[in-house]
Design a protein that fits this description.
about 270 residues; Double Clp-N motif; mainly alpha
Length: about 270
């Protein structure tokens, strides 16, 4: 039976399971996810409940009902069928490779689609951008939808484009670079996968999942193109990341604008 006093162990399981898929989240993010799965507003509140239980073992507060369903939903959002499948996945990871990265963004996709955490949704603009990225791959008869297709789609996403411009990115140049790369360098994808239904690559999945997790742990309910753009900076081996670097854009630039409204080059208040 899952118990709220096992919260830290559960958070550790989440981090290890995601690391095996090549996706890293911080300790604090994993703790916030577990707290919400138990129906608690945040980790600080959860920690206080645990401390009280440890000090007064005979007066344990009642744990929230249906914890199994809550953790199964959490596991599903992270790409597993249920919590038991998540923990079972840990046993399949070689001990000497506890944090194996998923294959680079050049081959087969993950088996599961990027799921959403309960109560979290994509903005209308992001939904359109995701569909546009698939269309960009389909019209070129590419077998997979890559991060570069996604970044190209985001150049026309109102939320992502606003961040790009605030970070002094030359949108026209970035778009031209991406179109050239997708048309010429990704031509080989026409001989791979299913050109009629280009599945998202592993990198694509990781970026979407990372954006969803960040939004959920921040206490918000809607994922936007801006969140996805920030999540791309964790894919340092991708060409999408390289193209943003060429424009001298950093993750910090993006976060400063999204969180504080500070444009690149502006003096902090």
């Amino acid at each position: 039976m899952r118990d709220f006093r096992d919260a830290k162990a559960m958070a550790k399981s989440i981090r290890a399971a995601l690391a095996a898929k090549g996706q890293k989240i911080s300790i604090s993010e994993s703790l916030e996810l577990v707290a919400k799965a138990f129906g608690v507003s945040d980790w600080n509140t959860m920690a206080a409940v645990i401390k009280t239980a440890e000090q007064q073992p005979n007066e344990l507060p009642a744990s929230p009902p249906d914890n199994k369903a809550s953790f199964d939903r959490l596991a599903m959002a992270l790409g597993w069928n249920d919590w038991d499948a998540l923990t079972a996945a840990l046993r399949s990871v070689s001990p000497d490779l506890p944090g194996r990265r998923a294959p680079s963004d050049r081959g087969a996709p993950l088996e599961t689609a990027p799921a959403r955490l309960t109560g979290t949704s994509f903005s209308a603009a992001l939904q359109a951008s995701l569909e546009r990225s698939v269309a960009l791959a389909t019209e070129r008869k590419h077998g997979y939808t890559t991060l570069e297709h996604l970044l190209l789609a985001l150049t026309d996403d109102e939320d992502a484009a606003r961040v790009l411009m605030a970070c002094k990115v030359d949108l026209a140049m970035l778009k031209a670079t991406l179109v050239r790369y997708v048309d010429e360098e990704l031509r080989r994808l026409s001989d791979m996968g299913d050109p009629g239904h280009p599945a998202p690559t592993a990198g694509f999945h990781r970026v979407i999942q990372r954006a969803v997790i960040h939004v959920q742990t921040s206490g918000r309910n809607e994922v936007t193109g801006a969140n996805v753009l920030v999540a791309m900076f964790s894919e340092a081996e991708s060409h999408a990341f390289h193209f943003l670097q060429v424009q001298r854009m950093t993750r910090r630039d993006a976060v400063n604008f999204i969180a504080h409204g500070i444009r690149k080059g502006d003096a902090a208040a």
